[in-house]
Known about the structure:
The protein is an alpha/beta fold. The chain has one domain: Uracil-DNA glycosylase-like domain (Uracil-DNA Glycosylase, subunit E, 3-Layer(aba) Sandwich), CATH 3.40.470.10. Helices cover 37% and strands 12% of the residues. The chain has helices at residues 8-19, 57-60, 68-79, 117-133, 145-157, 190-195, 200-214; strands at 38-39, 45-49, 100-104, 139-143, 174-177, 180-185. The protein has a six-stranded mixed β-sheet, sandwiched between helices. Helix 4 (117-133) crosses helix 5. The longest helix has 17 residues, at 117-133. The chain is globular, with a radius of gyration of 16 Å.
Amino acid sequence: MIECRRCPRLVAWREEVAADPPKRFRGEDYWARPLPGFGDPGARILLVGLAPGAHGANRTGRVFTGDRSGDWLYAALHRAGLASQPDAWAKDDGLILTDAFITSVVKCAPPANKPTVAERDTCLPYLEAELEALAKVRVVIALGSFGWDGFLRASKANGVEIPKPKPKFGHGAEATIGERLLIGCYHPSQQNTFTGTLTETMIDEVFGRAVAAAGE
């Protein structure tokens, strides 16, 4: 995965931002490659996001690490008992996830956080492989509608029957997909957290539901 160069636009962007970063990150050695998932290989809870952040994961080399979205996400995981610490700033910061694994639909940072349909479809086999490898996953938290749709598409590609009509994303929405429970959660982007679209109480409720369902 980390050697993939199938999407010229994404390759150009991930390398461009690494070559000319903001002042606060100048001098840092950016990862600037596709991002594999991170967490407990035996996890019962899987979180699926959109794509790496240009100056977060694309810089640090670990999903949701080094930006405000990651600050929110890992703090919530820590409160839920799934992360060893509430902060994530580098691959070697000592963070450990227990019973949780985090990945994204698209593995490279996209311009304006908006992958094209073609880029999504080109990258989807990597998510399909992750879903098959993470055999113990019982609950999937989709961080945003893109993560929700990506999980459904990857599951279908893996031969899992998708309910009809297709389940719709919403914060707290639930759907049974094969043997897995899918739960929707607003993405912890600054746009959502700064405006109160997503609050700590809201994300804690989703994570609490996931932990309870994973143990059933």
